[in-house]
Amino acid sequence: MKKNLGLILGLLIIMSSINLAVAEEELLFEGYLNKGDSILVGPLVVVLQDVRKDYVENEYKAMILIMKDIKVLNMGYASLEVPNPDKIQELLTNTTFLYAMAETLGYNTTNPIELAQF
Question: Does pTM top 0.70 for this prediction?
């Protein structure tokens, strides 16, 4: 009984600290994740499990999975902010941005063949 109570108390403490981090609205990771990708945040592994369109609320939601030591601590859908399509189109026509993105992804921008593959 004490072991179960301790486990539940431990999970509640971990869950409350995760909710506090979300409530502060600080960015833990700035970048893009594909479905199935994961990032390491301290001892926790955060996995983007699935992305779906919620037609009732007209927004995209992501299934976020939080794990520690291969055990699931928390799992749930969270709303995603969809980028402005006009801004995306503007960035895709900006050659400086495209060169910077190609370099970030590891492409050799001085090699025309690699740049064309990007």
Answer: no
